[in-house]
Structure formats: structure tokens, C-alpha cells
Amino acid sequence: MSSRKRARVKLAEVAEAAGVSKMTASRVLNNGKGFSEETRDRVMAEVHRLGYMHDRMAVAFSSHSSSTFVGVSIPDLGNEVFAQVLEGIERRLNSSGYQAVLCVSQYDTASVDSWIERVLQWRPAGLIVTGRNHSEQGRKLLRQADVPVVELWDLNTSPLDLSVGINHYDSGYAMGRFMVERGHRTMAYIGTHHDTAHSAKSRFQGWQSAIQDGGGTVEDTYVLKDTPGFYGGYYATEQMLSRTADLDAIYYQNDNMAAGGLMFAQSRGLSVPGDLGIAGWGDLPISAILPQRLTTMHVAHLKLGQKAADSILAAIKGKPVEEVTSIDFRFVPGETI
Amino acid sequence: MSSRKRARVKLAEVAEAAGVSKMTASRVLNNGKGFSEETRDRVMAEVHRLGYMHDRMAVAFSSHSSSTFVGVSIPDLGNEVFAQVLEGIERRLNSSGYQAVLCVSQYDTASVDSWIERVLQWRPAGLIVTGRNHSEQGRKLLRQADVPVVELWDLNTSPLDLSVGINHYDSGYAMGRFMVERGHRTMAYIGTHHDTAHSAKSRFQGWQSAIQDGGGTVEDTYVLKDTPGFYGGYYATEQMLSRTADLDAIYYQNDNMAAGGLMFAQSRGLSVPGDLGIAGWGDLPISAILPQRLTTMHVAHLKLGQKAADSILAAIKGKPVEEVTSIDFRFVPGETI
DNA sequence: TTCAGTTGAGTTACCGGTATCGTTTTCCTA
DNA sequence: TAGGAAAACGATACCGGTAACTCAACTGAA
């Protein structure tokens, strides 16, 4: 590492070099009014010559304004659903001149809390947090902070501030009804940590209600303590089929788990949906290459992220915002139910 | 939104309430020395009672120190490889009290440049950028900034500052040699935008050299303008097999594309590796559920991210750091070559 | 010619902490 | 008990910009 230590060029130096006051230089940089063409050119010339860099820290401090940071907390990047949502958020924020400050919480509430506390100390312009079940501590911090907050992912009809999400219960219910309509009766569910993945649990509950309403039964559930991925689906299916006989169909937390189930079924020569029906959620990329088109629920993850960013940006700029933005899902019939 | 507008409690108020000077209160908050037990308790009591929040913006400004932000630029979150790397980075940074400020560049150099410029204005503690081929503008900014920089992903033996990465060329060469050794001769490559995905190109070049050194030929390459995913691999394989006859084996940019190829082969009743050999890269989660174990190269993506974070943290704290950290890959023989 | 309005630019105070140095008090030892 | 070191705390200046105000010069209409 070289030890370049020349101090940052400051506005006062630029101003002096250009033969004007700091204030005039500041006005030029902020594209305000109150200076002549000629002065502007002189100042800008010095800005470039000296390599002046605007010190946003000083600005935020001096003008008592907030930063251009937006805190974004998501539970897990190994889950591609959230990776997509994050990408949607980041694109929008970035193109509006804001920066995403990331927290990957691993579904750990305490770690979200401490992150919220730390990030608030930096006067963020806004916060986007995944989930709606905050700790008491987190809720208090969010309320205290005079900052727009978007609760993402789970639709919350009485949000802390703003909410952008999906009605997971309804999407689960819709899938459950379809499965019953197609003649399945003895069902099971495969997913991951219910205690923290609140949205997946909502889907499960909606699905379960639909099964019961339709006269079916939920014979078994398998809940892994892991990220909802391919191998988890494969493994849990194996376990489940060996312990519970005569299952008609399995509902998975997402398409990746369902793909695992489908590949397991294939490896055992089970016909789908004849011997076993399989339903996923999310319409994830994997479903495009499976031997059969997966029965699933399409969700525009990228769009969801973008909508969340739109909401927070509007709130930051003081524009009117819908408190609650519901993102649609679309049923994909597929061939596995 | 409620219009709670009570001003933030400031240190001076806490100090007054506790009957001490600002300075003493500051000392207490920073766990320094120079105050009694009793004073500490009085101050802390007021901190909690008034809900004081430390204004890091003012601190960074006043003490002329940098922030706790580390800029992290990655090309694409749809590519789960980078999602994993990012998660590794974030975990380490977060547990050390630093925050990741994200940029998803979509492989667009200009957008990285403008992000670098903006994020530098916030006095970041360090920067982690993916890739080693920066624009002239970007290089200049990075050099000018008196901030540690890690170039991630592509190993760079003469880095701008620090480098943490993989020797992609070697990993491609190793795979190429294996393919030749197993008797494949007529080969093809499937990947995505070569112009910008520098690392994938390095793998391709290493692989190509190995093929040529071993007496094989590279008959065809198919380069998609898309993120390297399942369907891209499926589609490109279909296209390639219809335009180029008698291929022995295909080398894919990563496992997800290879999985697409494998599923296509299965759908056409081709035997693998008898009719067509398939090799991937990355040992991604999908390979765990495929009908055959994929021949691939294992890379510890999470660890790579963590190492990058470790390097930048050491540099931030002025500790000695290896300029270049090479992350190993491990060959996975699999059953598809 | 006069005077109000506009334009270009400078002056001053301040944002909320911390570094630095100075002062007082406490405590220990000769 | 004096004296000096250490501990506890306070006063002041400053970090690098901008808000708000002031002021001079110029413009144009009465």
C-alpha cells in the first residue's frame, strides 16, 4: 500500500485559487443562482484542476439534512427470491442518487435491531426492512427515528409507516384450492424455519385452510432449519415419503425446494402428478428447465423491490404515497398438480 | 405518516441534565478514561432517559475520521455466485461494526464509475470492487481516494491496492485438461457476455489452451447476452447442438448453465457423458439434485467474500495485509465428463 | 435625476461532536 | 504535612461546508 497522504482539497482552497469566497464557490457547486458565467467557469476550472471532491459528510452535518443512504435489511441472500428483490431495490435507489446500506439478517431479530440502531446513527434518508414482525426494541427505534420506513414482503395493512408486499395467505389459499380441485386429498407441506419466516408461514396457513375447506387433510409437514433450497427439498421429500404413506401431493415453500422434490420423484420413478403432485411458489428460474412445467405462483420479485424503492423515495421527497402497496401474484397451472 | 418532529436529543442536553460538561459526557460515551464511576452512571442514566442517539455524522465530520461504510460493488445479484460472495462480505463487515454500501453494476463500467464517485464523497472506510478492469476514470478515482481498495474475484497480481480472488485461468485450464484426459476431443463452450465478464473469459481462455495443448479442438462457442442461468444453458445447448454436429463435450460458464444443458440432454434422451460430456463451474446448489453428479470446480464463494472483508478491515485498521490473497478451487470429478 | 429592484458576491454564525490543553481535586509518598 | 503525580473535569477551538444576512453595483422606470 502506498502511503499517499495528501489532505483532501477543501472548498476554501478552491475558492481562494479562483479568487472568490467559499460561499460563491459553494453556490457554483450547487448550481444555485448568484454568480456570473465567468465566475462559474473560473471556479469549475479550479475544481477540476485541484481535483476537488465534495464532502457530503460536512454537508449533511452542516445543513442538518439527512444522508443519501437508505438502509435495506433482508433475511438471506442464499434465497434467490430476496436476491432479486434486493436487486430491484438497489437499481431504483441508485438511479435516483441514493445508496443502499445492506443488512443480511439471517432471520435473526437481534441482529436486525442492532443494525437498525447503528444505521440510524448515520441519519439515513429511509429504511426498508423485510418482514413485519419486529421486536419491541426494533419497533421502538423505528418509531423514534424520524425517517420513512417501508415494511417489505409481507403485506401489512396497518404498517408502522409504509408497507409494500404480497398477500401470502391468499396466495397459499389459491394454491390449496387448486390442488383440491384437481382431486388431491392427502397432502403435506415442506418448508423452512416457521418461527422466523413469517411469510412462508402465512402461505402455509392459507394453503391449509383451503385444504380443509375443500375436504382434504394435511397429513404431514416437514420444516427444515435451513435456507429453502434445492437439496432441502430433495432431502425432505425423501424423509417424508418414507415416513408418511399414500400422500397425494406436496406443497413446497418455493420452487427450488419443489424442484428438489421433483428430481427426487424422478429418481425413484414416481410419476408426477399421478403418483405425487408437486406445487411450488415464486416461479423461479429453475422451473424453466425442469422436465415438467411446475405448478407455481408467479411473483414479480424485481418489481416488488422497485415498488419498495419507489415508496421510500416518494416518502423521502415528501410526495404523497400509498401507505400500503399490494403486489399481485399470478397462478401458473403447470403440469405437476 | 405522523409528523413527529421533536428534534433529536443532543449531547449537550444529556450533559446538562447530568450536570456535567459536553466533554465529560462525550468521554463517557466513548468508554474513554477521565471520569468517575458515579459520573458515568449519571450520564448513562440521562442517555437512556432522554433516548440520546449518537450522531455519527457529526463525529465523522468533527474528528475528520472516515465513516463505517464500505462500498461494495458487484455486477449482478441474479447470479447466485455473486449473491453468495456478497453475503460473505456483509456478514464479516457487519460483525465488525461496518456497513456495506451496495452497488449492483449490471456489468456497466460507467455506472460503477459514477457510483464510486458518489460513494467516495461520503468518506467510506474502504471499497470492495468486483473485477480488475476498471475504466481510466474509475482507476483515477480509486487511486486519488485515500482509501483501502480490494479488487475482488479476478486475482490481480499487481493490484491497485489489494486483491482477493481466484485464478480463473488456471481453473479453466484444469478442467480442460481433465476433459481431454477423459477422451473428449471436439469441444464447445457456452457462456455469457465475454466483453464484460472478464473472469469467465479467463476461464474460457485457460480451458481453450488446455484443449489445444491436449490435441483437442474448440469447435464452437455460444455467448449469450444475459445473466448466466438455467434457461440460458438449456437454450444455448439446444441451439448449439442443432448447428454443430458431433460435439463430444460442452464446458459451461457455471453450474446453473450446465444444469440447463444436462436437462436438455435428458429431454432429448442423450446419455451423459456418453453422447455428450458436460462440465460446469462453481459447484452451485443445483448440482446436489441433478440426476448425475456434475463435473465441476468447487469454489468457496462465501469464504471468498469473507476474505475480502477481512482484507479491507485489516487495511482500514492499519494492520499488515497480504496484498494478494488467492482463493483455492477444488476439482469435483462428478459423473458428467 | 432619483430610487426601488435585481444581481453578484462577501460576512458571520452555526451544525454536534471531539482534540487539546488547562484547571481543580484527590491521593499517595517522603 | 508538604509536595508532586494522577485523576476528574471544564473551556475553547475547530472540523468543512451552508443558511441567512448584508452590501455594493448595476438596471430600468418614474
Automatic annotation (TrEMBL), chains A, B:
| Keyword Metal-binding carried by entry | no
What's the source species for this entry? Answer: Roseobacter cerasinus
InterPro entries the UniProt entry points to: HTH_LacI, Lambda_DNA-bd_dom_sf, Peripla_BP/Lac1_sug-bd_dom, Peripla_BP_I
Residues in domain HTH lacI-type?
Answer: 9-63
By its UniProt entry, which PROSITE patterns does this protein fall under? HTH_LACI_1, HTH_LACI_2
Q: Is the S-adenosyl-L-methionine keyword given for this protein? A: no
Q: What is this protein called?
A: LacI family transcriptional regulator
Q: Which key words are in the record? A: DNA-binding, Transcription, Transcription regulation
Question: What superkingdom heads the lineage?
Answer: Bacteria
The molecular function terms in GO held by this entry are: DNA-binding transcription factor activity; transcription cis-regulatory region binding
